[in-house]
Automatic annotation (TrEMBL):
Its EC number is 3.5.4.28, 3.5.4.31. It holds the Pfam family Amidohydro_1. It is an enzyme of class 3 (hydrolase). The lineage of its organism: Bacteria, Pseudomonadati, Pseudomonadota, Gammaproteobacteria, Cellvibrionales. This is 5-methylthioadenosine/S-adenosylhomocysteine deaminase.
């Protein structure tokens, strides 16, 4: 008999959804992990003969799938969850959120808020997130500590904020941060020009040049509302996306967040330049911003990924919920029940997110040679029975509370419902302290 191959971890599961184009679902199979990588996905019978595992985990009431990728958010805004509900975007930002950020945002706020967000994300199955916020050095530090995979984009705006006195300082600090994380296996630093209406041409051009030079990602809020497009037509005589294309900002490294306003010409531009769309359906619904036409974009050949946006406009970071909403909304918007099927919705929250972030060679699906970024959901609850189709069970009936295990690059972040890299009690205590501070500070109007 041939000697068995030594592996660090063997995870046996009832179902494995690898999220590959063939829409395959494995039953009673195992994933073998050596170091940080998946080295095999094989029937359990075979795995027992083939591998000698240091540790074997049997998850026989579970679905295993790639960790979810939250492709857009503002993690520290978890501390502003429920702070300003039921407002449209413009009022929400100008009269509530920006004044609150000018009063409270600091390195400590971002450290505590980001840690709270990461704990919530791990508990709801996210293993990789894209963040755009002030004090990005704090977000990067916390993500590294928690062993989460992350794209951290540093903000560029035309005006001063608590993080710096204007674009020159934002570029200087952001580029230094990019240097600090060069070669990091989990954290990637990119550019976060906030939106076409808050960043002048001069600075957008500078982002385009530097991002190309550094091969760094760019994330920008784009076509979030009809007002944004109308104002751009009034000021520049062109749609925001046309302006970005002319400035060299539309590239395969560009992630366009929201895109609720899409003419046929916009879809053609996105597809031609290979830019990605990050769809945030719950935030768009709550702020009444509009509906991203996912089926139309997909038909044009645009990669559509999924994000929650910040907890101040969502009000959670639950990607299972987001997938469900995305699938339902796509059908309603297209008038087609087949729009964004369960498998397609799973792809938006995994492999499409990896593609948008430029890390699809590393993560986003369960395949041999990819990083072991994996989650497990226990699906034997009454509310989950019976299971005819594991993909349907996740998208149309998923629950964050069913997420039991999570690994990033083979390291456990959640085991049997217990966080492994974070101190949950301490995180909650700090969030409560911030709630007291925020509630005891008068809400005066003020610019950011
Ligand atoms: C440049 S740091 C991020 C900045 O963006 C604000 N923000 C949060 N959500 C949205 C959104 O949906 N559209 C536009 N801006 C948003 C956040 O409060 C920060 O100030
Ligand atoms: Zn946002």
């Amino acid at each position: 008999m041939a000697a068995r191959q030594s592996v660090r971890l063997l995870i046996r599961a009832r179902w494995i959804i690898p999220v590959v184009p063939e829409r395959r679902i494995y039953e009673d199979c195992a994933i073998a992990i050596q170091g940080q990588e998946i080295i095999a996905i094989t029937p359990w019978e075979q795995a027992q003969k083939q591998f000698n595992a240091e540790q074997t985990l049997t998850l026989d009431r579970h679905i295993l799938m790639p960790g979810l990728i939250n492709a857009h958010g503002h993690a520290a805004m978890n501390l502003l969850r429920g702070y300003a509900d039921d407002q449209p975007l413009h009022t929400w930002l100008n009269e509530h959120i920006w004044p609150a950020e000018s009063r409270h945002v600091s390195a400590e706020f971002v450290e505590d808020g980001t840690e709270l967000a990461i704990a919530e994300m791990i508990r709801s199955g996210t293993t990789c997130f894209a963040d755009m916020y002030f004090f990005p050095e704090e977000a990067a530090k916390v993500a590294r500590r928690a062993h989460m995979r992350a794209q951290i984009t540093f903000p560029i705006l035309d005006f001063p904020t608590n993080w710096g006195d204007g674009p020159d300082q934002y570029f200087a600090k952001g580029l230094a941060l990019h240097d600090d994380y060069r070669g990091d296996d989990l954290i990637r630093i990119g550019f976060g020009p906030h939106a076409p209406y808050t960043v002048a041409d001069e600075h957008l051009k500078r982002v385009a040049v530097l991002a190309e030079e550094l091969e760094a990602p760019i994330q920008i809020h784009l076509h979030e509302t009809a007002d944004e497009v109308r104002d751009s037509m009034d000021i520049y005589g062109k749609r925001p996306i046309e302006r970005l294309a002319e400035l060299g900002l539309l590239t395969p490294q560009t992630q366009c967040v929201h895109m609720t306003q899409v003419e046929d010409t916009d879809a053609v531009l996105l597809a031609e330049f290979g830019a990605h769309v990050i769809h945030c359906p719950q935030s768009n619904l709550k702020l009444a911003s509009g509906f991203c036409p996912v089926a139309k974009l997909r038909a044009a050949g645009v990669n559509v990924a999924l994000g929650t946006d910040g907890a101040a406009s969502n009000n959670n970071l639950d990607m299972l919920e987001e997938m469900h909403t995305a699938a339902l909304l796509a059908k309603a918007v297209a008038g087609d029940a087949a729009a964004l099927s369960a498998h397609q919705a799973l792809a938006t929250a995994t492999i499409n997110g990896a593609r948008a972030l430029g890390i699809d060679q590393v993560t986003g699906s369960l395949e041999v040679g990819k990083s072991a970024d994996i989650i497990a959901l226990e699906v034997d609850a009454v509310s989950a029975q019976p299971i005819h189709d594991a993909a349907s069970a996740l998208v149309y009936n998923g629950r964050a509370a069913r997420v039991t295990h999570s690994w990033v690059a083979g390291r456990a972040l959640l085991l049997s419902g217990h966080l492994q890299t974070l101190n949950e009690r301490d995180i909650i205590a700090r969030a409560r302290r911030w709630a007291e501070i925020i509630q005891n500070t008068p809400r005066e109007a003020g610019a950011l």
